[in-house]
Amino acid sequence: MAHAMWTGTISFGLVSIPVKMRAATSRKGVSFNLLHNKCHTRIQEKRWCPECDMEVSWEEVEKGFEVAKDEYVSFSAEDFESLPLASKNVLEVESFVEIGEIDPIQFESSYYLEPDKKGQNSYSLLRTTLEKKKLVAVGKITLRTKERLCIVRVYESFLLVETLLYPDEIFDANESPIAKVTSSKQELTIAEHLVDLMTKPFDPSEYKDNYREALESLVEAKVSGKALKSKTKQTGKVVDLMEALRQSVLSAQKDGSSKKSAAKPATKKSSTKTEAKAPPKIAAKGTSKTEAKPAAKVAVKKSATPINKKRTKAS
After folding, report:
1. Which of 102, 168, 208, 305 is 20 to 30 A away from residue 262, measured at CA?
2. Looking at the domain assignment, is residue 105 inside a domain?
3. Same domain, 104 and 146
4. Does residue 157 share a domain with residue 16?
5. Residue 32 resides in a domain
6. Residue 162 belongs to what domain range?
7. Least confidently predicted of 79-83, 179-183, 190-194, 202-206
8. What's the first-to-final CA gap in the chain, in angstroms?
9. pLDDT tens per residue, range 58-112
10. How many helices (H) and strands (E) would you count in the chain?
């Protein structure tokens, strides 16, 4: 686990919980260095002072706030340490809310909280209470040079801190609203059916970073001097929205049938009949919405959930 990046106390009413905070996540990827394309030498980035015409070490660097063009007020590490903020060392719980009240767009970063030996009992008390009440604690914590809004929630055996963005850090969606377009009843019906076909429990282990794997393969091929085979997915040209929905439903039904046939068949004794919701009728490609006659229907053979039970002739 990562090193402790914050040490302090969670203030829960009059209860104090000494804790250490560690990063709970890490971003993985393939790292590259910048090279000079003529000689393949790694580029060096230096801190350079144009006034003194010399390289500057970190010990000689300080932060400055620009008050006018090329005019700055300097700030030292001691200036930041002197800020009168209780949240530098204390995460004070200000309220409790249901996590569903917080829009996911506000979530920023996650951190594990570990109890000090002296705070294990109070740590367990807060964790158990949050779990039983199904609530999260809202508070503030200062990390580096910013006081962050945050929540404390239960995650596995830990208490987890989730830092949140303030409202003024989120772009207002009402500044450039999207014009509302009314979908036809048939489009909406088929779209809902497609969603039903694709609905399943979320399992994060089913997903992987294909781009990172492709980059790793590219690096391996470059190092070994081999050519990398292209695996670009070819996509068919979609004529219109209804055609896209029709093809999507057929594809989802085909995938569902393949997964069911691959699964272990149930025994005759345990098999039960279930009533399936009738799938919507899908008009054939090119059918006009204003036609009085019924639209052509699409029948799919050998499908677990056929779109139409009977084949009909187009009018």
Report:
1. 208
2. yes
3. yes
4. yes
5. no
6. 6-26+92-169
7. 79-83
8. 68
9. 999 999 999 999 899 999 888 888 888 878 889 999 999 999 999 999 999 999 9
10. 5, 11
Q: From CA 126, how far away is CA 17, in angstroms rounded?
A: 9
Instruction: Kindly give, in sequence order, each residue whose CB lies less than 8 Å from that of residue 243, ignoring residues fewer than 6 positions away.
Output: 285
- In 3D space, the residue among 121, 143, 123, 132 whose CA is nearest the CA of residue 96 turns out to be 132
Instruction: Tell me the β-bridge partners of 137.
Output: 96, 152
What tokens does 118 get?
Answer: 């002296």
- The pTM assigned to this predicted structure is 0.69
For the stretch 145-162, pLDDT in tens is: 889 999 999 999 999 999
Token digits for 107?
A: 């979530």
Q: Is residue 99 located within the same domain as residue 22? A: yes
d(Cα 75, Cα 83) in Å, to the nearest integer? 12
Structure tokens at 147: 């006081």
Return the DSSP state at 134: T
Q: One-letter amino acid identity for 76?
A: S
Q: Pick from 258, 252, 247: which is nearest to 302 by CA?
A: 258
